[in-house]
Amino acid sequence: MAAPKKGRSHGAQSRPGRTLAFILIAMVALTGGMFLSGHTTPRLGIDLAGGTSITLKAKSEPGQKNAVNQTNMNTAVSIIERRVNGLGVTESEVQTQGSDNIIVNIPKGTNEAQAREQVGTTAQLYFRPVITVAAGAPTPEPSASPSGSGTDKDKATDKATDKATDGSKDKASGSPTATPTPSATPQGRAVTDGLKADSSPSPSAGSSASGKPTPSASPTPDPATAALQKKFTDLNCTDKAARSQVTSGVKPEDTAVACGKNSSGQWEKYILGPAEVNGKDVDKAQATINQQTGAWVVNMDFTGGGSKKFAKITSKLSQQQPPMNQFAIVLDGDVVSAPSVSSTLSGSAEISGSFDQQSAQDLANVLSYGALPLSFQEQSVTTVTAALGGEQLHAGLIAGAIGLLLVVIYLVVYYRGLSLIALASLLVSAVLTYVIMTLLGPAIGFALNLPAVCGAIVAIGITADSFIVFFERIRDEIREGRSLRPSVERAWPRARRTILVSDFVSFLAAAVLFVVTVGKVQGFAFTLGLTTVLDVVVVFLFTKPLMTILARKKFFANGHPWSGLDPKRLGAKPPLRRTRRAPGSSVGPVDTKEA
Question: How far apart are CA 477 and CA 492, in angstroms?
Answer without folding.
Answer: 11
